[in-house]
Amino acid sequence: MSHQSGITANEALRKKFAEMKDGHIRVVVVLIEDESLVAKGEHQAERTFNEDFDKMIPPLIQKHRSAFYFVRLDTISELSGHNWLLIVYIPDDAKVRERMLYASTVATLKREFGLTYITQEIRASSVHEMTSNSFHQHVRSQAAPPPRTMREEEMLEIQQREVTADISIDSRHQTLQGLSFPLDENVIEAIHLFKKQNVDYVQLEIDHEQERILLAHSESISTPEHIQKCSPDNAGRYHLYRFKHTFHGETISPLFFLYSVPGHGSKIKQRMLYASCKENVIDTIEKRYGITFDRKLELCDLSDLTHEHLFQQLHPEAVASTGKAAFAKPKAPSSRGPRRLVKPNENSDEQ
């Protein structure tokens, strides 16, 4: 059982913790002074996590003094918002009392900031460990499988051989169930804003060279006709759209996932790429970010993207009742007379 130091954040630091949740701050340094946790330095976010980390952290480090470093990651949690990295820096040559004081205050610091916001934590003892490269090595080591015994390695090799073995020409093989490319940090930010209803339209594209899903366009307010104009007619796109309209006197905002790949203007390889990635993109957005789409539509021609078309997809019964008669099967020609049921001749076998 660990012992707590009893040191807590002062009022200024508590206010700073609340401000950090807005997503504008990249780095905050916290020290222990006069038996309290205090903020001693900060930087606003400028570029990506890696670039800001290597630019901002080194000047803030006091080589022989312990400190806590909060660094905002570029990832966003659907429940708590921006994720944070906590670095507990306690140099090897620090005094024993200082080492014990900082080590016993970590739990209190995390609780005051909010445990759900801290998704990564690193313990560092030298300035050489205070780099973005060290952080990524830490993440990779966490994701790596645990070491296996020789017997476990042999069993794993046997299982892999069984999967890939060619038994006969009719043997079944594992097949690729679609491609999965990671979402760029700008896409994650846009999805977060879309969920909070700060934007109504997000357009995504695939960068096949980087193998990533990138943000192509986003707008706070948009119409189907405007989406046509800002979408290319020779390349595929994914669209997240909040279709605001009135139905039975009530304003509603159903969510559409639109998949547009022009049939004639785009290349076959591109159409296959967008088709292969589509399900994984939808699955990631719905499961990881908690966004449920009311309709998922594929558009081969962008001219089909109109207010009327989307309205019909949601309310087909309302469109049918406005005067467009449903297709009815034509009656049989009258010259043929009434239809008769002809029974087989029961005595045909006897003749």
From TrEMBL:
Protein name per Swiss-Prot or TrEMBL: Twinfilin
Region (Disordered): 323-351
Keyword Endoplasmic reticulum annotated: no
SUPFAM superfamilies: Actin depolymerizing proteins
Residues covered by the ADF-H domain: 5-140, 178-315
Protein family according to the UniProt entry: Belongs to the actin-binding proteins ADF family. Twinfilin subfamily.
UniProt-recorded Gene Ontology molecular function terms: actin filament binding; actin monomer binding
Protein's cellular compartments: Cytoplasm, Cell cortex; Cytoplasm, Cytoskeleton
Origin: domain of life: Eukaryota
Organism annotation: Rotaria socialis
Keywords attached to this entry: Actin-binding, Cytoplasm, Cytoskeleton, Repeat
Record field: compositional bias (Low complexity): 324-333
InterPro entries: ADF-H, ADF-H/Gelsolin-like_dom_sf, Twinfilin
Function: Actin-binding protein involved in motile and morphological processes. Inhibits actin polymerization, likely by sequestering G-actin.
Description of how the protein assembles with itself and partners: Interacts with G-actin; ADP-actin form.
Biological processes per GO annotation: actin filament depolymerization; barbed-end actin filament capping
Chief localisation class: cytoplasm
Pfam families hit by this protein: Cofilin_ADF
Keyword Nucleus: no
GO cellular component: actin filament; cell cortex
